[in-house]
């Protein structure tokens, strides 16, 4: 894509606006993906199949940020490609590879989640880390082979002191065919596969939500109609429990009110008659409340997953479709595209495709509760090591070694302070 012509008096207003936006997206992309990589590498417990794909996605997005954004904005600012002919070929090739790997990884994640949620029994035997590593190797190999034409047909064209890195095909038919193949492999097929996979996942989760809600209603009706209890005691002498399950009444024998193992000594007045509540009943009520709370949390978590999956497909469509549409338009009818689409619009859509590099860590990782906990645990581990190292250096350089008991006591006190501070920090998150 050629940069806009520089008018007299400085850069265009659109470019001046896009420069800080480029810088912001670049910093967010690098920071977010580096944090994802550090968290997944530092925490060995998080090395699951899905997280291995997320690690590969972070690597490809980081390459996308490093090899695409700076080498796009700098030629625009300087109106000249100053990196040389070799860098022209290498940069364009690495840009294509990073974009392809990111796209293929998104498809692999969608298929992995489909089989894990919709077909767990059939996929349990082959959903292993080794299989994930092989899939990642296939993604990189396919991307490296698929982007070879970019390395072949990109070259540096110099007109006087100004150089431009452009793509020149000798045969326009092959250029159009390759452009259509890129649209098919990196936009149409990924969008179809992700939509179908996540659509089935959402349907499965939604059916699970309905089944859980129905099961909870049936359980409540069973508790209301199938089991009753009379916990009022006459003059505080005895407590009688009556249970009816499946129309089979079986009254329990009267229990002494002073039984230390079953009864609570707290009595509650009701209509002038003292009432004593048994501990088993209280445990049953607590268990039922906990089970209901867990069921509600499970349904809420599934609804969040459904929303996140819809967001993933919408993000992919919004971020990448405009760039591919304009690229295809330029290849098939350059004059019409240049006449109807300004350079600022092209730059904006080009910039929009880079936003995916900083949104993927947020959507796939930081919206996940387990990942957030692993992220905090990884950095607490770094902080704890630093604190222990500083404490050890303080003790090693201390000149007060007269009393061993005092030293041990102070060390224990410092350790307790460190432990308490860690517990407070954990609660604050």
Supply the CATH superfamily name of the largest domain. Answer: Rhodopsin 7-helix transmembrane proteins
Strand content: 5-15%
Binned, the helix content reads over 70%
Number of contiguous helices: 12
Distance linking N and C termini: 45 Å
The major β-sheet equals: 2 strands, antiparallel
Rg, Cα atoms, Å: 32 Å
CATH T-level topology of the largest domain: Rhopdopsin 7-helix transmembrane proteins
Strand line-up of the largest beta sheet: 1-2
Organism: Rapana venosa (Veined rapa whelk)
InterPro entries: Cholcskin_rcpt, Gastrin_rcpt, GPCR_Rhodpsn, GPCR_Rhodpsn_7TM
Domain G-protein coupled receptors family 1 profile: 32-364
Membrane topology: Multi-pass membrane protein
Give me the secondary-structure topology.
Layout: H1 13-42, H2 49-78, H3 85-118, H4 120-123, H5 129-146, H6 148-153, E1 154-159, E2 162-167, H7 172-226, E3 238-239, E4 244-245, E5 248-249, E6 255-256, E7 263-270, E8 273-278, H8 279-332, H9 334-340, H10 343-366, H11 369-397, H12 404-428
Antiparallel strand pairs: 1-2, 3-6, 4-5, 7-8
GO molecular function, one term: neuropeptide receptor activity
Keywords: Cell membrane, Disulfide bond, G-protein coupled receptor, Glycoprotein, Lipoprotein, Membrane, Palmitate, Receptor, Transducer, Transmembrane, Transmembrane helix
Family: Belongs to the G-protein coupled receptor 1 family.
């Amino acid at each position: 894509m050629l940069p806009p012509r520089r008018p007299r008096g400085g850069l265009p207003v659109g470019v001046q606006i896009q420069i800080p936006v480029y810088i912001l997206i670049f910093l967010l992309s690098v920071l977010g993906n580096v944090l994802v990589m550090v968290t997944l590498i530092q925490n060995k417990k998080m090395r699951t199949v899905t997280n291995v794909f997320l690690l590969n996605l972070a690597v490809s997005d980081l390459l996308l940020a490093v090899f695409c954004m700076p080498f796009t904005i700098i030629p625009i600012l300087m109106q000249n490609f100053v990196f040389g002919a070799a860098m022209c070929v290498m940069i364009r090739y690495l840009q294509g590879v990073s974009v392809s790997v990111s796209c293929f990884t998104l498809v692999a994640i969608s298929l992995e989640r489909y089989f894990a949620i919709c077909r767990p029994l059939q996929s349990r035997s082959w959903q292993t880390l080794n299989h994930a590593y092989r899939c990642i190797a296939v993604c990189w190999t396919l991307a490296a082979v698929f982007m070879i034409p970019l390395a072949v047909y990109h070259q540096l064209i110099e007109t006087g002191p100004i150089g431009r890195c452009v793509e020149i095909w000798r045969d326009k038919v092959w250029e159009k065919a390759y452009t259509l193949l890129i649209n098919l492999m990196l936009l149409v097929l990924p969008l179809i596969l992700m939509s179908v996979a996540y659509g089935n996942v959402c349907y499965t989760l939604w059916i699970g939500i309905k089944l859980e809600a129905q099961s909870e209603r049936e359980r409540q009706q069973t508790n209301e109609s199938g089991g009753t209890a009379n916990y009022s005691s006459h003059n505080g002498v005895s407590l009688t429990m009556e249970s009816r399950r499946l129309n089979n009444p079986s009254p329990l024998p009267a229990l002494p009110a002073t039984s230390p193992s079953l009864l609570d000594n707290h009595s509650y007045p009701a209509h002038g008659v003292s009432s004593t509540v048994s501990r088993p009943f209280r445990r049953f009520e607590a268990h039922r409340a906990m089970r209901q709370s867990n069921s509600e949390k499970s349904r809420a978590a599934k609804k969040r997953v459904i929303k996140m999956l819809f967001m993933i497909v919408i993000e992919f469509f919004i971020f990448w479709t405009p760039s591919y549409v304009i690229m295809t338009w330029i290849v098939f009818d350059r004059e019409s595209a240049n006449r109807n689409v300004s350079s600022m619009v092209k730059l904006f859509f080009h910039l929009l495709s880079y936003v995916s590099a900083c949104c993927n860590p947020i959507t796939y990782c930081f919206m996940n509760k387990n990942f957030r906990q692993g992220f905090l645990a990884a950095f607490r581990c770094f902080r704890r090591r630093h604190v222990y190292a500083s404490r050890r250096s303080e003790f090693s350089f201390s000149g007060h070694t007269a009393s061993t008991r005092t030293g041990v006591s102070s060390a224990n006190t410092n350790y307790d302070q460190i432990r308490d501070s860690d517990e407070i920090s954990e609660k604050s998150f």
